[in-house]
Amino acid sequence: MRWIARSTVAVCAVMLLSPTTPATAANPLDLTSGFYVNPNSAPATWARNNPNDSRSAPIQSSIGSKPIARWFGNDANIGSTVANHAGAADGQDKLPVLVAYNIPNRDACGGHSGGGAGSASAYRTWISGFAAGIGTKPAVVIIEPDALAAYGCLTAAQRTEMAGLLRYATEQFKAKAPNTYAYLDAGNAGWGTPSTIAYRLNEAGVANIRGFSVNVSNYYTTSQSITYAGSVNSFLPAAKPFVVDTSRNANGRNSDPGGWCNPAGAKLGVTAQRGGGADMLLWVKTPGVSDGPCGIAPNTPAGTFNPDLAIRLINGT
Questions:
Q1: Which region is the signal sequence (predicted)?
Q2: 219 Cβ contact partners less than 8 Å away, ≥ 6 residues apart
Q3: Is 262 among the annotated ligand-binding positions?
Q4: Which of 37, 128, 198, 258 is most buried, by the most CB atoms less than 10 A from its CB?
């Protein structure tokens, strides 16, 4: 693995630090040769299992063969699950993108992806294992989509608990995953005011990690998302790098109030790349995976791959 040779100097420097001093993050983009394509993503698996379906070839070509983040929820063996995924990417000298999605009161506003760890202590155990599973392997992690933006749907006690758990998560990645760029999710251009989100990011420990993510699982254009991120940064004590989810944003967000949930007319955005006005443009949401039983997929539960949704994203219909 080339990242091992590239990081030799950094590792030697870390060894000179005291045992309690966390390693300074190396740039995982520089330690790898591109983004990891998961052969077992939902669209790739569907295409492989349905070779005679006319939708199979375009889904594999346009979606299944592209770098897509893998989402991780409640898993008693999260450390080994994450380690296996990050290890598979490392074996190809590629950079995996992972999403930590298991906080208590998850998806408090939308409700379609509700759930998460059963208690604060269970979450601490889970996220600690997640970070340890990555270890020194290069990775990108998006921490808890929707969590900060959904404070308005929580009680005061729940908000306090969530802020503490998010801060704990940032501390775990800082201490245990030195070659990971971690990003706290900061909602999107249509959800929450920049000053409020900046306050919550600061409270949740964004200073401990690389930065924040925007537009996860949403449809706002890259330009709109960059403008929003810039506004958030203007309210932070120090500006932080950010990433944008471009998986479904080529046609932008429609004006329908319910346009966040399987809307018609959405289209695949640019594939994963470095730069583009941000740290990275990424496919965080898996194209073709339903937002919930709503919009143009009223009978498809959240998290379920629907080939018709995938084809409509390919065609922009």
A1: 1-25
A2: 248, 249, 251, 252, 253, 254, 259, 260, 263, 266
A3: no
A4: 198
